[in-house]
Amino acid sequence: TLLIVRDAMFGVKRFSDFQQSLGIARNILSARLERLVAADILSRQGTAARPLYELTAKGQALLPALVALMQWGDAWEVNGAPPVLVTDAAGRKVKPLEVRSPSGAVINGATVQFSPGPGADRRTRAFFKALQAAKDD
């Protein structure tokens, strides 16, 4: 599904172009496109016979997540020779994305901390409470 969103970011709009790029079965692609439209990540335009799929604002907001995943792949999975460069309008590479604290410190997998947010249910709160108890032991 993320590859469909990635292709939409690249400018792919037609079912046949998604299928050619991704090489997945028509029924699977159709179901995933329907889910992305239902989730308001893609909008369906055009005619019933020749639909066009375009990213909505919600879909476009996935850009940082996709760039972060691409940069991770470029660093860890393709030995510094990425198949697709993420660039700005001048053709320069985008700086690596970083997660920072309010003070500006870089946060990574070793330093990040999670806590249940205001919408967390009882099960989620119990999970985090158990994690904290395990750390305290």
Name the poorly predicted regions: none
Strand content: 5-15%
Question: Number of DSSP helices?
Answer: 6
Shape: extended
Radius of gyration equals: 19 Å
Instruction: Characterize the biggest β-sheet.
Output: 2 strands, antiparallel
Name the helix and strand elements from N-terminus to C-terminus, one letter apiece: HHHEEHHEEH
Overall structural class, as computed from helix and strand content, comes to mainly alpha
How are the strands of the largest sheet arranged?
Answer: 1-2
Let me know the number of strands: 4
Description:
This protein is mostly helical. Helix content is 46%, strand content 10%. The protein has helices at residues 2-10, 15-22, 26-38, 57-60, 63-76, 122-136, and strands at residues 42-46, 51-55, 99-100, 106-107. It is extended, with a radius of gyration of 19 Å.
Topology:
Elements lengths: L1 H9 L4 H8 L3 H13 L3 E5 L4 E5 L1 H4 L2 H14 L22 E2 L5 E2 L14 H15 L1
Antiparallel strand pairs: 1-2, 3-4
Overview in brief:
By secondary structure, this protein is mainly alpha-helical. The protein is built from six helices and four strands; from the N terminus they run αααββααββα.
